[in-house]
Amino acid sequence: MANAEKLTRLQQKVARELGEAMGKAQEELILRREIEEGKAKEREIETMKNQIDQLMEKFQIFQERETSLKNQILELQMERDNAVKEAEELRYKQGECSSWNMPWFSEFSLLEIKEATQNFNESLKIGEGGYGNIYKGYLRQIEVAIKRLNPQSLHSSCGQGPSEFQMEVRVLSQLRHPNLVRLVGSCPEEFALIYEYLSNGSLEDRLRCRDKTPPLSWQTRICIATELCSVLVYLHSSKPHSIVHGDLKPSNILLDANFVSKLSDFGICRVLCHDQCSNNNTTLCRITIPKGTLAYVDPDFVETGVLTMKADVYSFGIILLQLLTNRPAISIANDVKSALGDGNLKALLDPSAGDWPIVVAQTLAELALPCCDRNRKNRPELGSDVWEVLESIMASSVASSSTQMGPKG
């Protein structure tokens, strides 16, 4: 009996030890599997890390190439601007100033204009202003924008319509610059002007995101400011006489498919002379009746009737501040000046443009405010004081950014 009990206890002990051994073996097997899985995951992570490193190296190479290409494009654009200016000066020296003999300028018949606009169909109207309505159409297989004089302007007491037509033809048919809208031709019998069609509308439209278009990035806004400065320097240094646009505002700055800006609407521009306003005959100016949109018009010009190149500088300063803040033109200079003084410029910047580099934004604001000085004598020279700063900012913004140079988002 005693032996049987011992045998039973022994069997139970063996069973327990066997169970414990099997449990430990099972745990060890699970642990080994986990270790193997962990090692496999480590190898997988290492492989992924190597792949990411390789991709980052390729991306870095791509960024460097993109930056190099953008710098090359910028240099080519500057060379192009200089070449255009030199060609223009040479053309004047050679006495080739007759616009009507230029191969890029054509006269169109009223019949052609009506066919292109489907008899001025309202569905083709893309804009309107004081001069008249603007229609989209095709003329001789070219997509164009056709600006037609309002019939009322022909019979108005001031008769500004025909004079604006003649001024626009005179200026745009003789001048060439990458940032001037191209005048394709005219229809004298209808007082219609035919321009290249620019698909991205006006700067005003894009700042307001009209038709739900995406906002302009801060890089694109810097490019627009630099291009506007470039074309103003070109106009102000035009030969044989300087030209003042006189009506600078966002609605007169058009954007092509690549968001390159083109200055338009030269109906009230003026040619400056040496003989009207200065005793020493060194100041280029003209005495005339102030015109334009009040918020952008030089207050000195409004008070005195003396128009100088500094009138465009004033308007340029207001537009530069709007590119920064997207705020209304009225009182914008005072608002930005106060924000700078309080060290709170960032709160005024347009957030839809993206993350403005604060140093760049501050430099632009400090560049724009002197342009908006009410006393024209205190305003900087665009060619020597403003252009170099903008050129440097644009070059650095292009070099430091791998984002698109069009709308944000």
From TrEMBL:
Catalytic activity: S-ubiquitinyl-[E2 ubiquitin-conjugating enzyme]-L-cysteine + [acceptor protein]-L-lysine = [E2 ubiquitin-conjugating enzyme]-L-cysteine + N(6)-ubiquitinyl-[acceptor protein]-L-lysine
SUPFAM superfamilies (UniProt xref): Protein kinase-like (PK-like)
Keywords: ATP-binding, Coiled coil, Kinase, Nucleotide-binding, Serine/threonine-protein kinase, Transferase, Ubl conjugation pathway
Coiled coil: 31-93
EC numbers: 2.3.2.27
InterPro entries reported for this sequence: Kinase-like_dom_sf, Prot_kinase_dom, Protein_kinase_ATP_BS, Ser/Thr_kinase_AS, U-box_ubiquitin_ligases
Record's keyword annotation contains Repeat: no
GO MF assignments: ATP binding; protein serine/threonine kinase activity; ubiquitin protein ligase activity
Binding site residues for ATP: K147
Listed CDD domains: STKc_IRAK
Record carries keyword ATP-binding: yes
Family of the protein in this entry: Belongs to the protein kinase superfamily.
Protein's name according to its UniProt entry: RING-type E3 ubiquitin transferase
